[in-house]
Write a structure and sequence with these properties.
By secondary structure, this protein is mainly alpha-helical. Among the domains are: about 1-30, no CATH class; about 165-260, no CATH class. Helices cover about 65% and strands about 5% of the residues. It has twelve helices and two strands. The protein has helices at about 1-5, 10-25, 35-70, 80-85, 95-130, 130-135, 145-155, 165-170, 195-210, 210-220, 225-250, 255-260; strands at about 175-180, 180-185. A two-stranded antiparallel sheet has the order 1-2. Strand 1 and strand 2 form a beta hairpin. Helix 5 (about 95-130) packs across helix 7 (about 145-155) and helix 7 (about 145-155) runs antiparallel to helix 9 (about 195-210). The two termini are about 45 Å apart.
Length: about 260
């Protein structure tokens, strides 16, 4: 695009001509147009994720406020309605109590609305791509929300020509910065889809939960690298596995996955 902004004369006609030449030469790649029928549902799912994060901040505020006033740690589960009710009479200062009540009221509203939103998104997914939704849920660790996230952030898997392109788009690989035979670390780590990066990182952790064979595989990786890097390698492998599962429309085979 420097060919456009660096020119001496600039107008719409010149700009369009230069862009056409860049496209013809393959130097100006076309952007992917996300399927129109799935776009609104994807945006709703992203909105749900931001609301969940805000709810987590509210729960952290309750915990921090309890610590700030030297009270015993909360033994209540803020996900439960009955436990949240107990917080409405915990603080002696009326201003502090009002502040906590505000958090609890918003959490109550979120809990009510999120259940409805999640059910609606799941219903839409079963209409848009029920086969891939079921395939994703065959992986240990991919549940309701993660399957929806991966499904809608990918769109159509056929838009990725190779598994390397998919891994790069999902931020599962790092690009080395080299010059004159010397390595200067990595760059471009934030180029790609942040939602897929989060989803596969979560899948890697959940896949290990209660899975002895997967835990042995992680320990095998840790003999050659740190635990954090081993988890990243596992997330990358799970991402590659999901690519081929959706591409070939096959279910998850754990024995084949751990042997590969």
């Amino acid at each position: 695009m420097k060919c456009i902004h660096g020119g001496k004369a600039k107008n719409d006609r010149i700009d369009s001509h230069k862009i056409a030449k860049l496209i013809r030469g393959g130097n100006f790649p076309l952007a992917y147009v996300y399927p129109k029928e799935m776009r609104a549902t994807r945006d709703l799912l992203r909105r749900r994720m931001s609301i969940v994060r805000h709810g987590a901040n509210l729960k952290a505020h309750v915990v921090n406020t309890t610590s700030q006033y030297n009270l015993p740690p909360n033994k209540v589960n803020l996900k439960n309605v009955k436990d949240r009710e107990e917080l409405k009479s915990r603080f002696s200062d009326p201003a502090v109590q009002y502040n906590i009540n505000l958090d609890v009221s918003i959490l109550d509203a979120y809990a009510k609305e999120l259940n409805s939103v999640e059910s609606f998104i799941e219903k839409q997914a079963k209409e848009h791509n029920p086969v891939h939704l079921k395939i994703l849920q065959t992986v240990n660790g991919i549940g309701r929300i993660l399957s929806l996230t991966i499904l809608y952030e990918i769109g159509y898997i056929n838009r990725f020509d190779t598994v390397q392109n998919f891994a790069s788009y999902s931020r599962l690989v790092k690009c080395k910065a080299e010059s004159a035979g010397k390595s200067y670390g990595t760059q471009g780590n934030k180029i790609g889809n942040a939602h897929l990066k989060w989803a596969f990182s979560q899948v890697a952790v959940l896949y290990l939960r209660g899975n002895k064979e997967a835990q042995k595989y992680l320990q095998k990786l840790q003999k050659r690298m740190s635990k954090a890097k081993a988890l990243s390698v596992l997330a990358h492998k799970l991402g590659r596995c999901v690519y081929f599962m959706l591409k070939n429309e096959t279910v998850f085979d754990e024995k084949k996955f751990l042997k590969g």
